[in-house]
Write a structure and sequence with these properties.
- There is one protein chain.
- The chain has about 210 residues and is mostly beta strands.
- It is built from three helices and 13 strands.
- Strands 1, 2, 3, 4, 5, 6, 7, 8, 9, 10, 11, 12 and 13 form a 13-stranded mixed sheet that branches.
- The longest helix is centred in the middle third of the chain and has 11 residues.
Length: about 210
């Protein structure tokens, strides 16, 4: 599996417990996070993707992380969730990608920043895109709702931050969370009405 080439592209969305705007984005991420740690959930919908003969289109996965005060210092907790709708071959491929065993951005994260890997679970993942709103529900694991921060130029688009070093992509929409809940892998977080940080963007990854 680790030697097979894979590609995927689709939609990414994220929320973390930092106040808006998360300082990790504009400090590369050398600056301190808002609180004592950063807890974040990154969720990906694959619109097109494959590994060898295995089609990955239509599936979803999530990365859950918790860092210390400065993300670049490493020592992260890291875990993944793979769409339970995946068949056996798709599960093998996505579990290897999500865990960092098959190259690509998750491998870079795990190799350079993670000290506590807590595994990969298979759960239902529901993702809804509606205008500037992104909603995620993984029952018993994580859920959040974010809304893009609309520009006053009446374009119907959110503000963006560009040329970032974020693993999902260089250009991210800025968003605020209406609520965020994380309750798996020993991580526990519940935020409602705090307007904490969020992002969304198209993504394209390859091994």
């Amino acid at each position: 599996m680790a030697e097979q080439k894979w590609t995927m592209r689709g939609e990414y969305m994220e929320s973390c417990n930092c106040d808006y705007l998360c300082p990790c984005i504009y400090t590369n991420p050398q600056g301190p996070v808002t609180y004592d740690h950063c807890a974040a959930a990154l969720v990906f919908r694959i619109d097109h993707g494959s590994c060898g003969e295995t089609n990955l289109a239509g599936l979803k996965f999530a990365l859950l992380i918790r860092s210390g005060k400065v993300m670049a210092d490493g020592d992260w907790i890291f875990a993944g969730v793979v769409d339970e709708n995946a068949d056996e071959a798709q599960r093998r491929v996505l579990a290897a990608i999500v865990s960092g065993e098959a190259g690509g951005p998750p491998a870079l994260i795990r190799e350079n920043l993670v000290s506590d890997f807590r595994g990969v679970a298979f759960e239902p993942i529901d993702v809804t895109l509606d205008g500037l709103v992104r909603t995620v529900a993984i029952p018993g694991v994580v859920s959040f709702e974010i809304e893009g921060v609309a520009s006053r130029n009446r374009s119907g688009e959110p503000f963006y931050i560009d040329n970032t070093a974020h693993p999902a992509g260089r250009r991210l929409a800025l968003a605020r969370a209406k609520e965020m809940h994380m309750e798996a892998f020993g991580l526990d977080l519940h935020l409602v009405g705090k307007g904490n940080n969020g992002h969304f963007a198209p993504f394209a990854w390859a091994s």
